[in-house]
Every structure is written in C-alpha cells, then in structure tokens.
Amino acid sequence: MARTRGGDGINRKRGGGATRGRAHRSRQVYVFTEGEVTEPEYIDLIVKNGTPKKAGETVQAHIANPNAEGKLRKPLRLVQDAVKTLRTVEREATDAGLQKGEHWNWPQVWVLFDRDDHQGIAEAMRLADKEGVHVAYSHPCFELWRLLHYTNYTSSFGGVCGDANSRLRSSAGFAATYGPGVRTVTEQKSKHVRGDQVLHEKGDRYRNAKKHAQKINERCESPDPNKWDPYTDVFAFVEDGLLLSGY
After folding, report:
1. Which of 94, 120, 186, 231 is the least crowded, having the fewest Cβ atoms under 10 Å away?
2. Pairing verdict, β 108-114 and 59-63
3. What pTM value is reported for the model?
C-alpha cells in the first residue's frame, strides 16, 4: 500500500493523451486513522488481497498520518487535518484534468475513528459531512469490525472497547493466527492484524461481517452517534472508498 510522501500526488498530465491518462489513472485515497497499528495493517491487507468491484478501476491508498502523535489522533483533529488534505488533492486532481462527479477516480479522503471515550464525535461528523470528508465510524472501537468477521455480535458493549477486544481474542481460531500452538494473545499483540483473521478464499468472512454490521446499524435510531452501541460502517470504506467488492 502506498504511503503519503513529499510530492506524492496525482500526476499532472496535460496536452496530448490527457483523456486516456485520466481514464486509466488510479483513484488516490488518503486515509487518516485513529489507530497507529491496527487500521493501517488492516488496510494494507485488504488493498493487497481485495477483489475490485470493476475491472480497470484501481485505487492507491495512502496512510496520511503514519507518524502523528496521539494528541493529533482525536476525531475532530483528524477531520480538520483531513479537510486540508482534501483541498490539496482536489486541486491536484483538477490540474490533472479530472472533474468531481464525473470521473470515478476523483480522489477521496477518509477518516477512520472510534467512539472510545472521545469528545467531539458529533462535531467531527458534522464537519466531515460539510467539507466532503468521508468517515468510517466504529462504536465502541475498530475491534467490533474485526469481531464481526468471526461472529454476529449484537449486544451493547457499554462503550467499553476492552470488552470488544476481549471477545475478539477469545474467538475460535483467533489466537492460532499468530502461530502454531498459540492459544492466548495479549491485548497489545492483538493490535496486529493477521490475514487469516479477515481474508477468506470465498470472501465469506467479509460478507458475513458486512451483513452483521448492517443488521446492528439498523437498530441505531438516535441522531447522536455517541449512542450507537454497537455500530460500525467500515464496509462503506471498503466498497465506496477502496472500490472493493470484498476480500
């Protein structure tokens, strides 16, 4: 998976062959993640192993904040930084001859964050919606999305991410993904995502996780995202952002 570097942007092609260049250029997707390890490793896995929804429509995913300090990984700050990046990549896309709403490969900027005990969740979502930044939100945390690859969990976690992590680590077959004979995994080690936890040759793990997530999300009737327990729409990032049908 490509990572953001200085000067890493859409190639500005002009003149002869520009139309063909636009049609074959990958979509650039910039992702701000709250987590420093889990989400980037997950994204790396599915970008490398996912199934594109449409032949020829490819994505280059960039982790936009790989070295950010913890204080810069709060939801509202993530969205604020994402807005700045979005304006830059949209200018680059326009220079390259792309038009918003007309080209499938118009760039996107996504933010992945959790409820945890963060303040400003609703404000962050309102700002993202206003400015055109996409959000994938998990309540209580990203571990719920991983857990749904194993089981259909529908009960409230009471906002406690540790409970979701504990259930994930106790899922049948989870510990064994870290090596032969491994029976228990620490919470710290479980932050590292292994392919067997999410990938399946028939795509069943992803399809089941998406189905489970959609069911629990239907029950979230409050306009306050702080009360959506449990909730996750990471599948929207997979399909709408990365243009994958599964993995």
Report:
1. 186
2. unpaired
3. 0.90
